[in-house]
Amino acid sequence: MHFFKYKNSELFAEDVPVSKLAEKYGTPLYVYSHKTLLRHFKAYDDAFNGYPHIICFAAKANSNIAILRLFAKNGGGADIVSGGELFTALKAGVSPKKIVYAGVGKTDDEIRFALRTKILMFNVESEDELKEINKVAGKMKTKAPVALRINPDIDPETHPYISTGLKKHKFGIPIEDAIEYYRTASRLKNISVIGIHKHIGSQITKVTPFVDALKRVLVLIDRLSAQGVNIKYLDIGGGLGISYKDEEPPVPRDMAKNLLPLLRGRKMTLIMEPGRSIVGNAGILVTKTLYLKQGFEKEFIIVDAGMNDLMRPSLYGAYHQILPVKKQKRADTFADVVGPICESGDFLAKEREMPMVKQGEYLAVMSAGAYGFSMSSNYNSRPKPAEVMVKGKEHCLIRERETYKDLLKAERIPDFLGNA
Ligand code: LLP
Fold first, then answer.
1. Are 285 and 249 part of one and the same domain?
2. Is the pTM here over 0.90, yes or no?
3. Which residue among 228, 246, 272 closes a domain?
4. Does residue 128 form part of some domain?
5. Which residues form the domain of 19?
6. How far apart are CA 188 and CA 345, in angstroms?
């Protein structure tokens, strides 16, 4: 459910015509709906109401500071994977006591930063990392709060690139070795073991993998408890899918209905790390049709957004619905919607049946709020697009369009190359 709807053949973001935003802010343009963001965040909060929980929004899905602020103001925390995300989350006003830090490659600098700012916990992914955190914490004369990320060996039945909880993946600690790891962790002087973490993948459209993974983790928690290890925080990760096309994924309420009974009587705080299911359908990418071109075998609609702006179609073959910003009475065509990047892999849609568009008309790439802007790049020296948040009739720039100057901001010409 989202608030990008047609009114009289014209696509609106809440109460604002998308064409108006495109005219004012230019294209390509990311547009987010405040009401949708909040609704999706609250859907989690309400569903798990009654069991102590923290919703740590996965900042990697969309790390815009305004979006993080919105969730922070509503009691949310953040799941981070880098010093940059920690910096952004803190600037956005996320309480460090609601920040969890995952990722297989944390550097000493990042570990120090997280210890200094007193985050809730590190989700540790290997023995080497555990020892490194212990060392850094020791030097800082402090104790690092830690959860071990367990790889439960569950198939989330999603795209192989975004599945993470199988034995063959680089993430987490094999579940059969977990007890041994916890033993090691408990012996380390500057580590305080407080939690357990798992995350099995993304865009998961069934409840079963979540249930199966949780059951495995609960068995482990009981074994740990028998050995005197008390787990205060149970972090079940993110991964709930959204509808890009015709998927019918469960909603947070379905998750709660299936997961909460398993937690009954257990005194823990539940942590969730949803990303896509909160922001995915709350954002669109607006693009302008530059040219139409009849190729040898097919029709191309060339638009001003490329794989550098939205990488998912090129990277995963992901499907994003593409809608006209103004509906016209036109026949359907079969076309590839492609960007201006010099790569054959630069497309937003392939062999898509869609209403014919004309030069200069706007298109909306739907469900682009998650892993859209956050995965964008400057490839082909293209300034990154602007981002706008709409709330009712109001709209506000939450990231300026980059300029050519921004592209060169960090670059230097060495003296030995002389003048031009
Ligand atoms: N927690 C951890 C530890 C994660 O690695 C991820 C996502 C999440 C939470 C949030 O998962 P979500 O609720 O968004 O599914 N770029 C890919 C998705 C990569 C997901 C990486 N990890 C895409 O565009 O589909």
1. no
2. yes
3. 272
4. yes
5. 4-31+280-408
6. 49
Q: Is residue 120 part of a domain?
A: yes
| Cα–Cα distance for residue pair 28/284, rounded to 1 Å | 10
Q: 81-105, pLDDT tens digit by residue?
A: 999 999 999 999 999 999 999 999 9
Which amino acid residue places its CA nearest to atom 5 of ligand 1? 199
209 Cα–ligand 1 center, Å: 15
Model confidence over 313-352: pLDDT tens digits?
Answer: 999 999 999 999 999 999 999 999 999 999 999 999 999 9
Does residue 413 lie within any of the structural domains?
no
What stretch of H or E contains 148?
strand 144-151
Q: Which residue has the tokens 């803190």?
A: 90
Domains identified in the chain, total number: 2
Residues recognised as catalytic: 342
Q: Is the CB of 103 under 6 A from ligand 1?
A: no
Q: Which residues pair with 296 in a beta bridge?
A: none
Question: Is the CB of 156 inside a 6 Å radius of any atom of ligand 1?
Answer: no
CA distance 222 to 150: 14
Same domain (yes/no): 222, 151:
yes
Residue 159 located in a structural domain = yes
